Amino acid sequence: MAGQQPQRSRQSQTGRFSRSEQIALGSVAAVTIGAFLPWITASAFGTSVSVNGIDGDGVFTLGMAIVAAVLVVARNWDRINTFAIGGLGILITAFSILYIVDPAFGIEESGAMAEAAKEMLNPGIGLYVTLLGGVGLIVASVLDRLRGSDSAPEQQSQQPPQL
């Protein structure tokens, strides 16, 4: 039918997912891995202790990563989806930065001993991996929006005319 517009395919040259979707899924994997790695470490008197993200607030970033994965896999990669993925990326990034800047975030104890203990806390590798994943989700969303205006006419011109 000559009057119909060609439909934009979800398939890309690299497989089932577009480049932005692949970046988003890789970022989800990074956030998931980061949740199981140490978020907070403390060393004193030759002893080192670490707390994994999953044992604390990393559960929230893991939950957001699961939601992002479901959005990428189960829904079409459209404008609403990219904004949702970008929003989740911003939340994960902000959460990670909050703990990197203040590893004692959420500790309500006060007093001299509590303050001394807070000084020994350092951000762990899991926070940085989680941060990387959050930034990746933002990049996937922004990349798709930047490419969205350029790729649609290009895909239409590659379609053979239908008779």
Name the features:
5 helices, single chain, mainly alpha, 3-stranded antiparallel beta sheet, 163 residues
Could you characterize what this model shows?
By secondary structure, the protein is mainly α. Residues 3-14 and 149-157 have low confidence and may be disordered. The radius of gyration is 21 Å and the shape is elongated. The protein has five helices and three strands; from the N terminus they run αββαααβα. It starts with 18 loop residues before the first helix and ends in a 5-residue tail after the last helix. Strands 2-1-3 form a three-stranded antiparallel sheet. The chain has helices at 19-36, 58-74, 79-101, 112-119, 125-158; strands at 38-44, 47-52, 121-123. 31% of the residues are buried.
Compact summary:
The protein is mainly alpha-helical. The chain is 61% helix and 10% strand. Strand 1 and strand 2 form a beta hairpin.
- What's the rounded overall pLDDT mean? 79
Q: What is the C-alpha radius of gyration, as a whole number of Å?
A: 21 Å
Distance between the termini: 6 Å
Main beta sheet = 3 strands, antiparallel
Task: Give the low-confidence spans.
Answer: 3-14, 149-157
Helix content: 55-70%
Helix-strand string: HEEHHHEH
How many individual helices?
A: 5
Query: What proportion of the residues form beta strands (DSSP E)?
Result: 5-15%
- Give the quaternary arrangement of the chains: single chain
Structural class: mainly alpha
- Shape, please? elongated
Note the topology.
Elements: H1 19-36, E1 38-44, E2 47-52, H2 58-74, H3 79-101, H4 112-119, E3 121-123, H5 125-158
Helix pairs in contact: 1-2, 1-5, 2-3, 3-5
